[in-house]
């Protein structure tokens, strides 16, 4: 083997085998003479520097990362070196009222004060998720950028003043006069769909529920002064009969009329039980006035009513229909009681001894009411009862939208918060929430009325629920049944 054989390609250094005439990688002819060394041919002749003067290595130009890519051009010597002019930088993008503003121009240091994407070391940090890179938008600026001065805030219709009612769905649009959001088109809940009121020692909450398209319940709470200077508290709850026409108007008219009658009679010194009786009659007249003028018209507006008055150490209850009142003592070791008896088919069957309570209330006709307020009522028979508790407690006045989920007095006492006497509004909210959690199949309305017993009062025997101040007309054996409220 010849000692002068090439071991590698002169062009690409690929190993060669004996007998190869061409490189198997680059195709170089290995038998050809080696290529001549490359010679630099500069455009401008380079003068020879004096041998005694050592030329230091050139410093990199400011702002450039590679010295080789931007080497200075020598002209006459080190003192006359010049740096090529930097390439023009792209203009900073203008601030936009949108998200994703992007990154700053290439080569610009983070936080540099030269562009609009950030401040200097002492300035605010850049935020690329906010318009203009601002760290914090100006106070009151809508998300997505400030609206021009001549435009309304985002989502607001033209001409809508700031501070209008905001959509409950998108939380940004404003509600028009038709009850729809101008931004997302969502129909807004009616004001009556959920109502809350607290007045001193009485509070009430009413909710549409989860299945009905409107709230057909209504309530009224009030307080007034008696002739002796003591206070009287009033709570009225009404439930519109869904199978009747305009049930929401009927319940509103009845609650308002009964409340007004009580506030007129009690300050004049009327006995609370008598005042309650007259208030129910006034409520019935108000509902009757809603009936069509056509003689013999059927399906007139109708509702039920239950009310409570706390005055002078007495608790007065009045009702027509199947809305109820419960007594829950502050001392939960004491026995709670239901203070009303329903005007319903099931109650009539039990009272007549024809069916047991469990069997009667399991029947599909159980909640068909036999007493109501309305022009087509079979027989108006207001029920009133007066009690004189010897211990403090609260009265829960409610529609069947609540007691369907806590029917017995014991169940109601278990749901009612222990601090109901000092937090009546919270307690009413808890009771409504209990019904909604249970399914909310009906409108739900409840009033919570605390009762503080005087420590030195003598205990009077409590009449049974449903007893009247005077004997009223006897009930029919087979009363006409009204469909369920």
Q: What this model shows, in words?
A:
- 31% of the residues are buried.
- The longest helix is centred in the middle third of the chain and has 19 residues.
- Helix 1 packs antiparallel against helix 2.
- The strands form 2 sheets. The protein has a 6-stranded antiparallel sheet with strand order 1-2-12-11-7-8. Strands 3, 4, 5, 6, 9 and 10 form a 6-stranded antiparallel sheet that branches.
- The protein has 485 residues and is α+β, with helices and mostly antiparallel strands.
- About 23% of the residues have low confidence.
List its traits:
single chain, 485 residues, alpha+beta, 6-stranded antiparallel beta sheet
Helix-strand layout with pairing:
Layout: E1 194-199, E2 202-207, E3 217-225, E4 231-240, H1 247-265, H2 272-288, E5 302-311, E6 314-320, E7 324-329, E8 337-338, H3 345-351, H4 357-362, E9 373-374, E10 383-387, E11 393-398, H5 400-403, H6 409-415, H7 424-437, E12 444-451
Antiparallel strand pairs: 1-2, 2-12, 3-4, 4-5, 5-6, 5-9, 6-10, 7-8, 7-11, 11-12
Query: Please, what is the average pLDDT?
Result: 75
The amount of helix comes to: 10-25%
Portion of residues in beta strands equals 15-25%
Shape descriptor: elongated
How large is the radius of gyration? 45 Å
Helical segment tally? Answer: 7
Strands of the widest sheet, in order across it, are 1-2-12-11-7-8
Taking the sheet with the most strands, its summary is:
6 strands, antiparallel
**Structural class based on helices, strands and sheet pairing:** alpha+beta
The unreliable regions are 58-84, 93-103, 110-137, 141-162, 457-461, 463-481
Number of strands: 12
* SSE arrangement, N to C: EEEEHHEEEEHHEEEHHHE
**What is the CA-CA span between the terminal residues?**
116 Å
